Amino acid sequence: MHVAMIGTGYVGLVSAACFSEFGVEVVCVDKVREKIDGLNAGKVPIYEPGLEDLVKNNVKAGRLSFTNDITEAVKSADIVMLAVGTPSRPGDGHADLSFVHAAAEEIADAMDGYLVVVTKSTVPVGTGAEIARIIHSRRPDAEFDIVSNPEFLREGSAIEDFMRPDRVVVGVESDRAKKLMAELYRPLFLIETPVVFTGIKTAELIKYAANTFLATKITFINEISDICEKIGADVHDVAKGIGLDGRIGNKFLHPGPGYGGSCFPKDTLAFVRIARQSGSPSRIVEAVVDINDKRKERMAEKVIAACGGTVENKNLAVLGVSFKPNTDDVRDSASLTIIPALQAEGANVRAYDPEAMEEAKKLLTNIEWCTNAYETMENADCLVILTEWNEFRALNLERVRKLLAKPVIVDLRNIYEPEDIAAKGFDYTCVGRP
Questions:
Q1: CA-to-CA distance for 122 and 92, rounded, in angstroms?
Q2: Which of 18, 28, 228, 263 is flagged as catalytic?
Q3: For residue 198, which of 226, 175, 219, 170 has the smallest C-alpha distance?
Q4: Given strand 367-369, what is the order of strands in its sheet?
Q5: 303, 343 contact by CB (below 8 A)
Q6: What value does the mean pLDDT take over residues 133-152?
Q7: 3-class SS at 145?
Q8: Phi-psi category of 47—alpha, beta or left, where left has phi over 0 and alpha has psi -120 to 50?
Q9: How far apart are CA 392 and CA 409, in angstroms?
Q10: Per-residue pLDDT for 332 more than 90?
Q11: Model pTM?
Q12: In this structure, which topology does domain 294-429 adopt according to CATH?
């Protein structure tokens, strides 16, 4: 089987590498020549644990290749997958489908014989039908089927998520396409992975429903943490107490500075738009979006309060700028709101992140970037933990105490125990704990 993957971003590259590991021949297509040249030279443009080795091994085996030539890639393919970006459109929050539509046009011009066109990008309900219309309009004689196959990859654990997923969702409306997709995912059938075959529109909605539900769960526990701070309760115990209920579950019940990344922010905005257009607004998700935006701003206020009510001319040490650990992704990270807010109040910021500093430098200014965690702390008035990288979980607290000008720690990820930190002589602020 031959697959053409259009787009070498996070979803496209991870999916392509994993399919090739299954034994499928995959060619990745991208218009950015520098990216393709880099991949052909062995340079993986994103950080994801295990991805570099997976790409190199499958390139060496001859199952994975990269090109700028979409025509040749599509002509030799049985399945073409769209994994292009669908960012939030400025102004209204709707998913920008310009890359999807452009790719559909190029596929139509290049296809030669029957083809299954699969959307892996997160797209609004009805996008599959629009892709079909575009292809038909350019190639009335074309023989093809549209499939929706949304991805559910978590950054930082994407390869494991692909190889051992909770489920695979396939929106398909022809037996021929269904058989091809079943063959593509046959290795997962062998480990009894649940596969949900459904209609195209239903599959498109499943992706949004899943992400908005998880974003809602995060926002819920964040609001609970606020209540805990007011009444003196412990949000970790609350989360454990409710998470043991099988109907609720314990995942995504960890309080923090708000969700970020490439999926939840844009998908919640797009879902709000989809719901409004359908005539059935989602008041819950609308509230989630609003609460999450305001929470990031309030986390900056928490840092200022811990510093005595002002950060003017104070030196702040910031650990972590990625939206979560094990990724270099800073898209919609809490750091992009919190750090500028602190700078606007006069703070001087030194920061360190194990993987995300190069990406962050494109979006954050006037920061002194450091080579390790301890360098940020030299003569700092406050240590702020924004991302829960493992290397931040076991800092040498005696060394930290000596480096800081003032023993103040604001831990927005709750990676330390309040009593332990207080016993070391720190003024410790966390989220939702007494």
A1: 17
A2: 263
A3: 170
A4: 367-369, 348-352, 315-319, 382-385, 408-411, 427-429
A5: no
A6: 96
A7: strand
A8: beta
A9: 12
A10: yes
A11: 0.91
A12: Rossmann fold (3.40.50)
Q: How confident is the model at residue 153 (pLDDT cuts 50, 70, 90)?
A: very high
Q: What does the pLDDT average to over 202-211?
A: 96
91 falls in which pLDDT band (50, 70, 90)? confident
| CATH class, 208-289 region | mainly alpha
Mean pLDDT, rounded, for 351-367? 97
CA 45/CA 141 separation, integer angstroms: 38
2-198 homologous superfamily? NAD(P)-binding Rossmann-like Domain (3.40.50.720)
Residue written as token pair 């003569």:
379
> Token digits for 146?
């549209």
273-294: b (≥16 Cβ within 10 Å) or e: bbbeeeeeebeebbebbebbee
Model pLDDT for residues 365-383, shown as the tens digit of each residue: 999 999 999 999 999 999 9
- Please give the order of strands across the beta sheet that includes 168-171: 64-67, 25-29, 2-6, 79-82, 115-119, 144-148, 168-171, 195-198
The answer to whether domain 2-198 and domain 294-429 are alike in fold is yes
Note the pLDDT of residue 95.
Answer: 84
Long-range Cβ contacts of 129-135 (<8 Å, 24+ apart): 129/200, 129/201, 130/97, 130/101, 130/104, 131/82, 131/100, 131/101, 131/104, 134/101, 134/104, 134/105, 134/108, 135/104, 135/107, 135/108, 135/111
Give Cα 219 distance to the centre of its chain: 16
Q: Where are the domains of the chain?
A: 2-198, 208-289, 294-429
For 251, residues 6+ apart whose C-beta sits below 8 A from its C-beta are 217, 243
Query: pLDDT-derived band of residue 178, with 50, 70 and 90 as boundaries?
Result: very high
Joined tokens for residue 257: 């500075």
Q: What does the alpha-carbon distance between residue 372 and residue 319 come to, in Å, rounded to a whole number?
A: 9
28 is catalytic: no
H/E run at residue 392: none
Q: Is the pLDDT of residue 88 over 90?
A: no
Give the count of beta carbons closer than 10 Å to the beta carbon of residue 307.
Answer: 23
pLDDT bracket for residue 262 (50, 70, 90): confident
